[in-house]
# Entry
Amino acid sequence: MIFSQKMPTIELDKVILRTLLKKDANDFFELGKDPITTEFLTWGPFKTLKEAITMIKFTYFRRTSRNEPIGYAIVDKATAKMIGTIEFHTFNRKMNTCEIGYVLSRDYWNQGIMTDCLKAVTKVAFNHLKMDRVVIKHIIENTASQRVILKAGYQFVELSKKSFFHPKTQRFHDVNIYELWRNQK
# Structure
């Protein structure tokens, strides 16, 4: 499976999804330094701009060396500011699957933005990347993410008990797993 490094730009009602760029580092730092926005993530909150730059370089841009897409910046159409990211990760080439992860600045929560982004990126997974199945996971405490996933049409698969060790809490968490198959979209 060979992916095009060029991902389609997607225009939605309130945001544009485009490939994450180096110039997004300042906006990424701004959203990533908020402990509430990053509460359930494995990274953050950022303490310095350098941490945001390093993450873009070594997490997102490094994906090209594995022939995987970098990820999308979620850009507010009104301000041209990057307000979040949504990306593909954990590709299983044998099973032709991937996972999607996302973060959105809490200033933009509860506006339907992430649900719209997830629906759009799921279409990219099936139509552009030709995936057969897309998976999304969240620790059970993250009920906001659960609402986004279900509104986007994903189906609950299983509760995986104590399967994720969270570096922030230093304990194992239960994880909900969801999926969507190409023929379900």
